[in-house]
Amino acid sequence: MLSNLHELKMMLNQQGLFFCFGGPISQELMVGIGDTLRNKMKFDDADSSTIVKVFSMFVEQSQNIIHYSAEKTPPGAEKAEMSSGIIGVGYDNDYYYVSCGNIVYNEVVDSLREQLSKLQLMSRDELKRYYKERRKNDTPETSKGAGLGFIELARKSVKPIEFDVQEIDEEFSFFSLKTTI
Fold first, then answer.
1. 49: alpha, beta or left? (left if phi > 0; alpha if psi -120 to 50)
2. Can you tell me whether residue 69 is helix, strand or coil?
3. Distances (CA, A) of 100 to 36, 58, 79, 97
4. Are strands 172-180 and 162-167 parallel, antiparallel or unpaired?
5. pLDDT (tens digit per residue) in 96-128
6. pTM of this prediction?
7. Domains and CATH numbers, the chain
8. CA end-to-end span of the chain, whole Å?
């Protein structure tokens, strides 16, 4: 077990990942991690604009896990449930990146793919117009923010957002997302 942790750490280092968390995520945990990320980036002499963008991406992706993960901990407990997922922040090829992943129900996969594929193809101006258009629309029942989170991530990312969906079984898939700052 302990040697596996070393292998994991080496793999994370190779990917440029300086922060990685996997497990149940809450708003309180997100705030503490966000403070740690800001301090780490200040220590590394990142400019304040970059720190704000990375923090913003981290918050948005954490909220996606909290709101949309199909993996809840503990399900049916008396206390408030927490959603589980994984989130990481790294630096590679002169860019910071934020990646997250969580289990989703297969019934939402097609919609995720459609929405994200559309965003990948949009220019900065198109993303700006699309964001304004979506803000005017009513909030869809299945969304906690009119689907604006992905649009906002795409607008802030300096490269097209990347995503992947891997089927786990008949009911669930694992959804991954990466933004670059």
1. alpha
2. coil
3. 17, 9, 25, 10
4. antiparallel
5. 999 999 999 999 999 999 999 999 999 999 999
6. 0.89
7. 2-180 (3.30.565.10)
8. 34
Closest CA to 82 of 32, 35, 30, 20: 30
Q: What is the pLDDT of residues 69-82, one digit of tens each?
A: 999 876 566 666 78
Residue type, 150: F
* 108 secondary structure, DSSP code: G
Give 18-71 pLDDT, tens digit per residue.
Answer: 999 999 998 888 889 989 999 999 999 999 999 999 999 999 999 999 999 999
Give the three-class secondary structure for 76: coil
Whether 139 shows a pLDDT value over 80: the answer reads: no
| Backbone phi and psi for residue 26, each to the nearest 5 degrees, phi listed first | -125, 165
**Kind of pairing between the strands at 82-92 and 95-105:** antiparallel
Instruction: Pick the closest to residue 100 from 11, 53, 163, 154 (CA basis).
Output: 163
Query: How far is the C-alpha of 55 from the C-alpha of 89, rounded, in Å?
Result: 10
CA 40 – CA 167 distance, rounded (Å) = 35
Strands of the chain, DSSP E: 17-25, 72-73, 82-92, 95-105, 162-167, 172-180
